[in-house]
Design a protein that fits this description.
Elements (H helix, E strand, L loop, with lengths): L8 E5 L4 H12 L3 E6 L7 H9 L4 E5 L5 H15 L4 E4 L13 H29 L2 E5 L14 H19 L4 E7 L5 H8 L4 H10 L9 H11 L11 E4 L14
Parallel strand pairs: 1-2, 1-4, 2-3, 4-5, 5-6, 6-7
Helix pairs in contact: 1-8, 3-4, 4-5, 6-7
Length: about 260
Amino acid sequence: MTDSLSPRVVLVTGASQGIGHAIAQTFLEHGDIVIGCAHSPIDNAPFARALLARYPERFFYYSVDVTQTAQIAQFVSEAESLFGRIDVVVSNAGKNVFRGIDCAESDWSHNFDLNLRSHWFLAKCARGALQKSQGVILVITSNHAFSTMPGCAPYNISKRALLSLVQSLTIEWGPAIRTVGIAPGFIDTDGNQAWFDSHANPQAVREKTIKKHPVGRIGEPGEVGELCLFLASDKAGFIAGTTIVMDGGRSAIMQDDDDA
């Protein structure tokens, strides 16, 4: 795949809000075609509606429950039929399942269906189209794949497993398909703002969180989008089989205390 084929056809899961929305917007601003999906129907997805209004000929949206493999298969099939090709897949959909290692079996199963199996199955469904286009798969995992905190299981376990998925996709499907992982840290999304707001003093918690990042701030969703744009380009053609951490240096800190 070369950049001269722009506009590329880019699939983005979890595109209704947060990081997924920012990724979709970044590719659209670059001139690409984006076919996005999320669990929310379009009536409950205001950010997706805004993209539809701004890019009516280049943004398409489907309501998909990625824990249901039949829905993933249908989404990929319909997406490919729109333009006859798929050039990039950004497998982003997921959510925090922070229940602790003593979680219920139902929490464990839901977490792995959403945060691991969906990425694997999406890649399987898109494989044929990506082989034709010499395409790219970008898997969005988390810095929890590398180090985590009490109570974050089983989420962190599935995110760790995605590192191996990226490796296996690379060595078994390359060189036709190039696969790279991205592990964002604390990104300033509405979801994280809701976490701040759940505290008695949200601003104090935000400032404490910022202090834990050597760069002196938390990340912006658009920064993840820009990294995806680069990794999907030929300029990143020698990057494969690895997962890039973007967490503002947070994981470089050995200890985590009130003064960090």
